[in-house]
Every structure is written in C-alpha cells, then in structure tokens.
Amino acid sequence: MEALRFVVCGRPECRQVFFLCSACDRGRRYCGSACSRRARTASVREAGRRYQRTRDGRHAHAARQAAWRQRQKVTHQAPPPGAPEATVAPEPTGPAMEADTQVGSARPLPHAPPSLPTCASCGRTSPFTRHTTLARTHLGPRWRRARPP
Ligand SMILES: [Zn+2]
Ligand SMILES: [Zn+2]
Fold first, then answer.
1. Which terminus of the chain has fewer Cβ atoms in its 10 Å neighbourhood, N or C?
2. Residue segments in the chain with a per-residue pLDDT below the cut of 70
3. In angstroms, rounded to a whole number, what is the distance separating the alpha carbons of residues 64 and 77?
C-alpha cells in the first residue's frame, strides 16, 4: 500500500498541511500553485519594483513599449492581398502583470478528504503517511515500475 508524504507548506504565511503521493512527489514544498507562485515571484517582483524606480528602469520600460508599438504597426501595415481592411487591435491599457494577486489563499484543497490523507496533486488517498520524501531516493521509479498498467 502506497503511503503519502506529509508536507507542510513552505510559505511562512501559510503553513498549510498537505500530502503527496510518490508519483506526484517531486520535492514540492508548497500546498498549491498560489503559494508556489507567490513564493517564486515575490523576490522577482520586488527586484522589478526597485529596478523600475531607477532612471534606467523607466528608460528600458519606455523602450520596450516603443518596440511593441513598432511591432504592432508592422503587423497591421501589410494585410494580405484581397483581405478586407485590417482592423487595428486596441493597445493594452496597462501592464498585464497585476492580475495574479488575490488568488484564493484560503481556498480548500481540491479533493479535500473527509478523513483520509489525500494527494494534493492527483487526489489519490491513502491511510498511510510518511515524513520523508522519495524525491532523493531510488524508491520512486522502482515503485512506479511495479505498479500494474
Ligand atoms: Zn501554502
Ligand atoms: Zn498524486
């Protein structure tokens, strides 16, 4: 019988307890995509903010915008022969980077178990849990081979 690994979410603000089966256990440290994304992007975003505040940062931003507009113009200047007059797409109203905040941190895990520990990734349940990962051992692949197709 396969055991699920007992994991505590690696984001200090969360500490959500969850489980992973050996098939899904790749050394994952966060309870869900929201947490892993936040943990991964938090430092990057902070560095980006610092960069934007500098004059070089603003200049680079303006250059990127100009290059983008230039690309749009080129795309729409040469419609294929015989095509109806091209409709120029409206320019985006702002950076598309601010959409991913506020994504359910308090959301219950998918396949939330009534009692049995459940893999947070695929939903597999097991009455057994372990506290060590298989990601760094040779057990994982052998177990997968032994499983019926
Ligand atoms: Zn979490
Ligand atoms: Zn799984």
1. C
2. 1, 42-47, 51-57, 74-114, 133-149
3. 20
Protein residues placing their CB within 5 Å of the ion ligand 2: 21, 24, 119, 121-122, 124
DSSP three-state, residue 14: coil
For residues 117 and 42, give the distance between their C-alpha atoms in angstroms, rounded to a whole number: 30
At residue 111, the pLDDT reads 56
DSSP sequence for 16-61: -EEEE-TTT-SS--SSSHHHHHHHHHHHHHHHHHHHHHSHHHHHHH
- Sorted by where each begins, the domain ranges of the chain are 4-66+99-146
- Closest ligand relative to 103 C-alpha: 1
Which ligand is nearest to the Cα of residue 35, counting in written order? 1
**What count of residues does the chain have?**
149
CA 25 to chain CA mean position, Å: 16
Q: Distance, CA 130 to ligand 1 centroid (Å)?
A: 19
Ligand nearest to the CA of 144: 2
The model's pTM is 0.41
Residues pairing with 130 in the sheet: 5
